[in-house]
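Possible regression after last week's pipeline update?

I re-ran a chain I had predicted before the update to compare outputs. Posting the input and the new output here so someone can diff against the archived version. Not blocking, just want to make sure nothing changed silently.
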Amino acid sequence: QVQLVESGGGLVQAGGSLRLSCKASGRTISGYDMGWFRQAPGKEREFVAYIRGSGVTSHTDFVKGRFTISRDNAKNTMYLQMNALKPEDTAVYYCAAGSRTSLYDYYYWGQGTQVTVSS
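New output (post-update):
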């Protein structure tokens, strides 16, 4: 079993930055595919970015150039650096580990961290 805990969320003004962390425990994540998702009020959860065990990354179009996913296997932690934040980025952000049927579907999920961007 893998337990995931997100941190780093908060309230920020538009144009500001935040760095989210996803700390894993219970098992080393070095070989795991991992991802970030978000869910805004009244909307479905949506994919933000993934990072494969190999280090290959992908970001959805609406965050490209603004958000960067990374990982530090020595710390068993994944990150999401978010720059140039917009009010529409407001959501609960979830990290996930262990891809199942695809890189958009995971076995393990964190509890989420709230990101609020004010205009």
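Follow-up from reviewer: compared with the archived run. The mean pLDDT is 96. Marking as no regression found.
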